Amino acid sequence: MKKVAVIPAYNESAVLSDVVRQVRNFVDEVVVVDDGSTDMTTAVAKAAGATVLRHLVNCGQGAALRTGTDYALAGGADLIVHFDADGQQNPLEIDSLVRPVLDGQVEVVLGSRFLSTQNKVPLLRRLILKGGIIFTRFFSGVRLTDVHNGFRVLSRRAAEKIEISQDRMAHASEIIDQIIRHQLSYLEKPVSVRYTPYSQGKGQRAWGSLRIVRDFLLAKLIGR
Amino acid sequence: MTLFQIIVLIFIVFVFLKIFKKYQEKVISSREMIFWGLLWLVAALLITWPGTTSFLASQLGIGRGVDLVIYVAMIANFYLIFRLYVRAERQEKNITRLVQKIALKNPERNEQAEKTDDSKLTVD
Fold this sequence. Notes:
Chain A has helices at 16-24, 41-47, 61-74, 94-102, 123-139, 156-161, 171-181, 197-202, 208-222, and strands at 3-9, 29-35, 51-55, 79-82, 108-112, 152-155, 186-190. Chain A is globular, with a radius of gyration of 16 Å. Chain A is an alpha/beta fold. In chain A, strand 2, helix 2 and strand 3 form a beta-alpha-beta unit. By secondary structure, chain B is an all-alpha fold. In chain B, helix 1 (3-24) runs antiparallel to helix 2. The interface between A and B is medium-sized, with 28 and 22 residues.
């Protein structure tokens, strides 16, 4: 079972080294997609042992995930782990998310910050995510506890079926929508999140959520 | 003829010349030249005979000629903006596709950093 981690990264040279080194212990290959970084992200990732795919210009996290996932599939991956570059997620939890897919129980495992009672999510973010949950329930017809989490595991079959056409942040909602559309079996597992001043500074602005809604709805309207 | 009309008409003549020049320089196609030329021709006609807008407006049941011009201009604007938006989206998608293709063709690895050992720092 070849396990490949895909880590989209934009200007994360400060923390990427640790992330890559730790994630390496749990997968067979780490693929970092450098989304047009202007710092040493590529060099840092390479030094830490990752395979780096570099976008010449910044295209968005969705596009980066697609690039990495396509590469992993072409390389014969049986299982793909999506993981964030900013150090908010815990590599030690990779095994617990991988297990249900490895055992053939489900095709997709989605990480959820809200299944774990230990996470302290900032109020504004929590509110916006609640809004996202209601939105997802309405448009995709599914009830999840966390609709915007970059920590997920896809089986090969799931990765092949899911088409990420959203380049920017709406990809998370799109992936969920696709899971339902393709009737892929899934389950949510608790993951811990560690907010640091570094990752908070890079996090999404509150308005970003409106842009996600707009992108998602527009795509549905145009029929993508 | 008011001063305003004269000034605007002179301006439109310059615009015509500019449009033709762009066509000669092959910056725009003949179709584009005709399109923009016609647009400005209509503008010139409406400026020369302002009564036409009032006439058309009353035919359509709208109060004033000016209102009609504004309504038409707004609808045309929305439509043009929509077209521009779609084109911009398509271009961005095309760029992304190209960027991804290039990225996939050139995967980079550091052959020296193959150790999985977490405690050692490798230097390339």
